[in-house]
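Anyone? Bumping this.
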Amino acid sequence: MASEFELSRNITIGQYVPTGSFIHRLDPRIKLLVFTILVLAIALNTSYVGNALGLLLSIYLFWVSKIPVSYGLSGIKPAIPFIIILAVLQLIFQGNVFSGGTVFFEYGFILITSESIRLVIVSAVRFVEIILLSSVLTLSTSTTELTHAIQSLLSPLKKIKFPVHEISLIITIAIRFVPTFAIEMEKMMKAQASRGADFGSGEWWRIIQRTKDMLPIIIPLFNIALSRAEDLILAMESRCYTPGNERSAYSVYKALVGDYIVLIIGLLLSLLLLFYPFPY
Amino acid sequence: MRGKPIIEIENLFHTYMKGTPMEHVALKGTNMVVNEGECIAIIGHTGSGKSTLIQHFNGLIRPDSGKVIIDGIDLSKKRIDIKALRRNVGLVFQNPEDQIFEKLIGDDISYGPFKLGLPIKEVRERVKWAMNMVGLNFEEMKDRQTFALSGGQKRKVALAGILALKPKILVLDEPTAGLDPKSRNELLDKIKSLNKIENLTVIFVSHNMEEVAYLADRVYVMANGKDVLSGTPIDIFTDKEKLQRYQIGTPETVQALYRLKDLGYNVDTSAFTISEAADEIIKVLTNGEVENHGK
């Protein structure tokens, strides 16, 4: 009840939790690379055992980074409705896509087989794994480190005139402002609630009414976002930011032996998830 | 003039983000009593728990432990009429102009009254009254565009939006922050007349000691999530030892009088309103002591 308006507690992406663990101290480039490969490997694995392995791995990584798993799990809460809707849609419509497997239920175009059930369960678990993994990454890496990592990993693309710096800047700003806007939104909800607004108390099927109820929050939030953007532009320009300029970095990263070991372990795990023929 | 207690807070605790790594204890046993019709200032440094405390007043935050009774409603109970509470306690946030979302001034101010389900005639009356209270001409301003207003006018519109709910208690978080001196003085006068003429109980948070001296009947000083000091502005601003311990600033008038006293002039340091302080200084000047002392 006390947390009626505490939005920021459910947003774990973009919050940095400094615990100084081994994962925090990894070279950010290698960390980002390993996490990207792991997420890809998990996204392509369709077996029960493989995904159970992935889930265990993501929880283990929370433990290593000394961040409470419960904190990562709270980041899943807002995604639950999407996971459920996705699962229902897949259950109804995907039966015909994957042939094979035992047919459990057939009615009209609805076909539920052991294969489509596998798809539903695996994609739900996969969703959770990916949220957990990306949470560990962002909770253990400051935004500055992330930018440097993105930039240096994408730098080979400069050869084909890809705007590496600009893209990494856009990503950083987007991630950086997620918690900021959560806080602004919290404030706005409180302010409008003080004027008699109430949110989410209308019947759920009256979508238009409920959307209208959100206008007193959405409109001010857009205003705030625009003025924040203006402030940011001024702040950057007053520090002589020039788009497209060659710039040097304050901190130079040097990968150590430990970093390479992590990279190798990460690669091996990913290969395992990708190519090992799991029995289930 | 003291009415019966309208806000009673006893040993109030509150923790933000409980159960996350960002857990933070904001209130550690705060006590406060506000009587009907009083004007109370809450002062204290950033992070002392002022904003957390005032959000308890209209139930935006519910107490973790301790007693909070607002106008007869006990907030530690699970089921309370939160709408009635928010109708009786008007909370004006910092930079309230951010919350304006309608295109026209009149529409924005009428948002609250419409949400109360009032008939349109009553809403119109309330909007008119609220605009009048903040010094905006109803006929002239109601159909103006909100985005074209100056900062001071926007803040008046936002304040009117709260007043239109006809609250008994008005709570303001740094009401004059970021305003130019002229708008600041205007707004302070409006708040004063709301308190003295319309008999609203007013509670405001401020960093500006001139404001505190001008408006408040009583002052609460917050530090580290607790109320550490309370009393009339005279009590607070003349207690030199405690002023220093809690690093509270004083109005410039008090500073000037203290400096005169330090130089050996016979002045009354409790005369902190501008006119009283001026009288004190004139007294010193006309006593002809200037030639004897001086620096």
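Late reply, but here is one note on the structure posted above: The CA atoms of residues 134 and 158 of chain B lie 10 Å apart.
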